[in-house]
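seq as requested:
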Amino acid sequence: MKIAAVQTDIHLGDIDRNVARLAEGLKETARNGATLTVFPECALTGYCFPSLDEARKFAQPVNGSATEVLTAVCRELGVYTVFGTVEADGDRVFNTAILLGPSGLLGTYRKIHLPYLGVDKFATFGDRPFAVQNAGDLRVGMNICYDSAFPEAARSLTLLGADLIALPTNWPPGAECVAGYVLNARAMENAVYFAACNRVGTEASFRFIGRSRICGPDGSTLVTSNGDEEEILYAEIDPALARHKRVVRKVGEHAIDRLADRRPEMYAPLVEPHSLPRPGDRQVTV
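struct tokens:
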């Protein structure tokens, strides 16, 4: 199957324009044979809101009108999409990724790891466990941007059976190493496909770096953007490759399986709570 990542500009707070651009992107990728298309983080709303009150003005309910429009496009085209938004839930806002398909809403993910940047300075920490959803025959897990800096996030989705991890992102300057190296490591260490879609353009004082990338289960780069201009990336993937974790390099002498070879009984320090201060004195309640 073919997947796509639409590296595009987003206009802060201009929901109608952003929805129209996502719909155009879906029609373009469908014309080119893509079954699943990934868009950037906060693609519906924009990211660099200056306050919680401002973010609330533009936050979108998961089942709101924007989702209805994009669901109709998915239904018409017979395709799936992952995109980001600022989600409204009562007085709270979440940085959320949404998976839609021809039948409607298939799953959501609320960003668990929040940097001190943009709307994440005010958003509520993700409060739901990692999950994997079916997009046709493809099993999709979602992370968002900064989550990729925490290997436990991708590993959790792998253990839940993900074939592909979709990463809507808003990488600013300083994230070049993540774009160039970390994604390949996450794909390789979990033997999954990894599709990261960054935005371009400028919000507040940040010009986003682009550099979207799709990686294969062996850690190879299938396709990458080397710049910060709008473009669409395409890659052919085979979910069966992500489901075959045992790699035999020399029969009888060298084989690895990064799931079967784990030693979870030795990993207790990973789940010990901490009380380290966060930038801006934001604390996580454990």
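Helices lie at 15-31, 52-58, 65-77, 151-159, 176-190, 239-243.
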